[in-house]
Write a structure and sequence with these properties.
heterotrimer, A mainly alpha (313), B alpha+beta (376), C mainly alpha (318), A: 313 residues, mainly alpha, MetI-like fold, 2 domains, 71% helix, disordered N terminus, disordered C terminus, C: 318 residues, 15 helices
């Protein structure tokens, strides 16, 4: 009735269709509020980190940190650990994924599920188990962190690699190179690695990012890594710790942006998952789809999206 | 305004009481509707009246505004100006959910989370009918479209053709005043398309429901519609029965868009004739007023061109396609002209690709028009 | 080769020969097929042995160790004592707190994240979408220390937002708010859970077809009817899956709480952490394992519950 009794304006507009979308006012409102929630803490940390006497700005807390030899040493340790973890990830997961796709394709889904398991066991629980099951000599070496990070980042890294491998015409590539006389080592080095470069890169990136930021395990196993040292500083000088975290955050943003811009494979997978192309988050979104697939037995290619009938178009 | 609403609501009430209205449909009028998207006029003072129970097909190239017209009628598209009337009532300001129309979309419109049965019963559910009634009616309609056996299936378990049948049943379940079909067959393959086409028409005639059908497929439009409206640039170019649109186009656009024609340069001769391809044929009755000596283009149907094998002929056969009883032959003539002719397959044995032929115009040209500017 | 192919018996041996012979070998399809002999079947698993071993050593062994230690005394004898202890007093409270924290923050993030995803899907501005999705990817991975510091800097006792609000005459700390409480943790957890939700829901929201709404509308549906009967049911499977991920994520999170509250809020991960760090009462050395087992059980129960719900919500997808 309301629609009818309203006086008809000269233009006589019909009502727009009901839509799932939000109107311009509502959507702008929602997005602005969300942006505030996400940006205010960031800006606050930046402000906090750069705060000098009497409201002035100074870089002193940032520069002070660069003269902190313990922090720098911890950064070196963290970088070493993360590079180690990335190297092991590639060496372990790439041949595994290739093998699974080549020789046991029926197990592809099972493998995807297995590599999700690290999400089910909380990190603190893994630490408990390490103390309980591993000899003390091993637990004392930071190498253990690198080894564990490979597993902890696996839900993300395996997907990155496997996505690339699945996108290849593996049989043809392998058959062709073998027919030309290449041994398996050569097939890997000369054919597969170059073809999988972007997937391998993003898997490495993901592992490095995870390892650089991981705090719980490093702290509970009493290692001094960059995050634990940051935590240590934070207990005394919050301003400086904040400065470093802002720095770290900006760095992460840069890496992820680079990933989203250059991650060719990410794009392919993203399209498959029904995402708009060129997003760094393909992995994250797929994870949910994957969890869905494992627990709800739905198809992993569709994260809850309805796909159209099979025969139309 | 108020009283009009009253009538509409009254009608709805009658319907709800089970007192069936006259099933022969209602009249639909779009009057001087305007709709612009930036510089493009999707509807340019577009007017159309559909008589009760009639099926009108809007035909035109993509972007001609036919879909906008349908959506304006549905209330899904805003109009900048103009009036929409359904059954004599102004519904211009009414939202789509109160217009009591049924619509079948091009594709993908079934609710994926409901079975075929629930899809069909959805409109009745919104109208608060009880479950048994809903189910009975939905089954009736699924039966009508021949899908009683698939009632429990979800849309993704149905083929494209089946999905469109369910969509049709769903649209009809609420006994809409008007049925809107927005290219409902274009996503289907040819065989299913032809079958469903006949079925839609059968049901439409049976129910006597006023129907607007939008398509870019002229065969569909000509075979199904009571009247065909040809649209271009937001305007209705011609509206009439299929044979009239096909045989007596009002302008060159309609002539060239509906059916196949060849465009051949000609000169108007004395006594309402035109000289074309070295022969002389009469001008169409409606276009007898061209001054003799004027250069024109004539549009000729394939059946008005006679092609004969002739070693001294100026034509060269460039393509030939066998269509059962007849053969389509494309002939290149001097002056970069290509014409399409139909000849009986039985007499086409010597007309092979690469052979020389003579081409002659017979009968009356479909349309005579200004010569097309020749490209440099 | 031709004979084998005609016989139609796929065999791994043939596949290997095929691979050796080169690209023309038509044995490709059979590799996915079932091998004939048991040896060959086992050989097919050879390539993943390193992976399986690695995975077993670094994830399965520790997990199993936790589960078994939970039922053992320090001396290695069977006991229920750890479990009993874990279900009493502070430990029981910590489970309650953990569940409360993760359920509230996951639920809140799930709902708000869906709203943001819908808002985002509604804009035609590709650049804005791209920025927000990239930013979401960053924020979703932001947990831990930087996040805690950022919130201390803004909403802590002396945080900038706190200062601004105080200057405007409303100090949140005078009104019962504190970033160092459970409520505070919820606010902080949403910071990384909400973007995750946006990332997961965006494709699902994009999958909502305009035609569904238009069709519903023509059948007489108002906006809310269309949402209720079509929009929400269609989004439900993705929503549930995401909720599950969010819940586990929040439940397992350690770093943020540790850095923010310095262990003052006794959620389970923090309790386990403090047990690991040696704050153990005599005779309770293995209580940590019992708590760990408890966490695994909670995740498993949540997963089962989820699978049940999902089974109903996604009925129409199968």
């Amino acid at each position: 009735m309301a629609a009818l009794s309203a006086p008809r304006v000269a233009t006589a507009r019909a009502h727009p269709a009901a839509e799932f979308r939000l109107g311009p006012v509502a959507r702008t409102g929602v997005l602005v509020v969300a942006a505030l929630y996400f940006l205010v803490p960031l800006l606050a940390s930046a402000r906090y980190a750069l705060e000098g006497a009497h409201g002035s700005y100074t870089l002193s807390s940032v520069t002070a940190l660069f003269h902190d030899s313990v922090l720098l040493q911890s950064l070196v340790t963290s970088v070493e650990i993360s590079l180690g973890a990335a190297a092991i990830t590639l060496a372990l997961l790439m041949p595994t994924s290739v093998w699974v796709n080549l020789r046991m394709p029926r197990w592809r889904r099972a493998m995807e599920s297995i590599t999700l398991l690290p999400l089910v066991v909380p990190v603190v629980v893994v630490v408990l188990g390490i103390y309980g099951a591993f000899p003390t000599g091993i637990v004392a070496s930071p190498v253990l962190l690198a080894l564990e990070y490979v597993v902890l980042a696996m839900p993300y890294s395996y997907r990155a690699i496997d996505g690339g491998v699945q996108a290849l015409d593996l049989h043809t590539l392998v058959d062709a190179s073998r027919s030309l006389g290449a041994g398996w080592a050569q097939v890997f080095r000369r054919v597969l690695v170059p073809n999988l470069r972007s997937s391998l890169l993003s898997a490495a990136f993901i592992t490095v990012a995870y390892s650089l930021g991981e705090f719980a395990m490093a702290n509970l196993l009493s290692f001094t890594t960059f995050p634990t040292e940051l935590f240590q500083i934070g207990t005394e000088q919050v301003g400086e710790a904040t400065a470093v975290s802002v720095f770290a955050l900006v760095l992460t943003f840069g890496v992820l942006l680079a990933l989203s811009l250059f991650g060719g494979h990410g794009r392919r997978r993203a399209v498959r998952a029904g995402l708009p192309a060129g997003q760094a988050d393909g992995v994250v979104a797929e994870l949910a789809a994957e969890v869905d697939a494992v627990l709800g037995h739905a198809d992993p290619g569709r994260p809850g999206i309805v796909h159209d009938g099979p025969t139309m178009r | 305004m108020g009283s009009e609403t009253g009538t509409l609501e009254h009608e709805a009430a009658q319907r709800a009481n089970g007192r069936h209205l006259d099933r022969s449909g209602v009249r639909v009028e779009l009057v001087e509707c305007e709709r612009r998207f930036g510089d493009v006029a999707a509807l340019d003072r577009f007017s159309l009246t559909i008589e009760p129970g009639e099926l009108v097909a809007l035909l035109g190239p993509s972007g001609c505004g036919k879909t906008t017209a349908l959506r304006a009628l549905a209330g899904l598209e805003q109009t900048d100006a103009g009036v929409v009337r359904i059954g004599g009532l102004d519904v211009t300001g009414l939202p789509p959910n109160r217009r009591e129309l049924g619509m079948v979309f091009q594709a993908y419109s079934l609710f994926p989370n409901m079975t075929a049965l629930d899809n069909v019963g959805f409109g009745l559910r919104l109208r608060k009918r009880d479950a048994p009634t809903r189910r009975r009616r939905a089954r009736e309609l699924l039966d009508l479209v021949g899908l009683a056996a698939q009632a429990g299936r979800f849309p993704h378990e149905l083929s494209g053709g089946q999905q469109q049948r369910v969509a049709l049943a769903r649209a009809l379940a609420v006994e809409p005043r008007v049925l809107l079909l927005d290219e409902p067959l274009s996503a289907l393959d040819a065989k299913v398309r032809a079958q469903l086409r006949d079925e839609i028409r059968r049901i439409q005639l049976e129910m006597g429901i006023t129907t607007l059908f939008v398509t870019h497929d002229q065969e569909e439009a000509l075979s199904m519609a009571d009247r065909v409206g040809v649209m271009a640039s937001g305007r209705l170019q011609q509206l009439g029965p299929p044979d009239e649109v096909y045989e007596r186009p009002v302008n060159a656009f309609v002539a060239e868009f509906v059916g196949s024609v060849s465009r051949v340069p000609a000169t108007v001769g004395a006594g309402s004739t035109v000289e074309v391809l070295g022969g002389r044929i009469p001008l169409p009755d409606s276009q007898a007023a061209f001054a003799p000596g004027r250069r024109v283009d004539v549009l000729l149907r394939p059946e008005s061109l006679a092609v004969r094998a002739d070693p001294r002929g100026l034509g060269l056969v460039v393509r030939r396609s066998f269509l059962g009883p007849v053969m389509h032959v494309v002939v290149a003539l001097p002056g970069k002209i290509e014409v399409l002719a139909t000849l009986p397959s039985s007499s086409a044995s010597e007309v092979v690709v690469g052979s020389a032929v003579s081409v002659e115009a017979t009968g009356t040209p479909l349309f005579v028009t200004e010569p097309r500017e020749l490209d440099a | 080769m031709a004979v084998t192919r005609l016989a139609g018996v796929p065999s791994p041996a043939r596949s290997r020969i095929g691979a050796d012979r080169g690209p023309a070998a038509p044995g490709r399809r059979s590799r996915g097929g079932r091998p004939r002999s048991r040896v060959a079947r086992l050989l097919r698993f050879a390539g993943i042995v390193p992976f399986v071993a690695y995975f077993a050593v670094f994830l399965v062994v520790p997990s199993v160790s936790v589960v078994s230690s939970a039922f053992e005394t320090v001396g290695g004898n069977f006991t229920w004592a750890n479990i009993t202890a874990a279900l009493q007093g502070t430990y029981l409270v910590s489970f309650e707190k953990s569940l409360e924290l993760s359920a509230i923050s996951a639920g809140l993030s799930a709902v708000l994240g869906t709203v943001v995803a819908i808002a985002l899907a509604s804009t035609a501005n590709v650049a804005a979408r791209r920025v927000v999705t990239s930013a979401s990817a960053v924020f979703a991975n932001t947990g831990g220390l930087p996040l805690a510091f950022a919130f201390i800097a803004s909403l802590g006792n002396f945080g900038i937002v706190t200062k601004v609000l105080s200057a405007m005459g409303w100090n949140p700390y005078d009104h019962g708010f504190s970033i160092y409480t459970l409520t505070g943790l919820v606010v902080v957890y949403c910071y990384f859970l909400l973007p995750l939700m946006v990332l997961v829901m965006l494709p699902a929201v994009d999958g909502l077809r305009r035609e569904w709404f238009e069709a519903a509308s023509l059948l007489g549906a108002r906006r809310r009817d269309a949402w209720r009967h079509v929009g929400i049911p269609v989004l439900a499977p993705a929503f549930l899956a995401a909720l599950m991920v969010l819940f586990t994520d929040a439940f397992a999170a350690y770093a943020t709480a540790a850095a923010l509250t310095n262990g003052s809020i006794p959620i389970v991960p923090i309790q386990i952490g403090s047990l690991i760090e040696g704050n153990v009462l005599a005779g309770q050395q293995n209580v940590g394992d019992a708590l760990g087992l408890g966490m695994i059980v909670v995740v498993a129960v949540a997963a089962t519950l989820y699978a049940r719900l999902q089974h109903r919500a996604a009925r129409w997808q199968r």
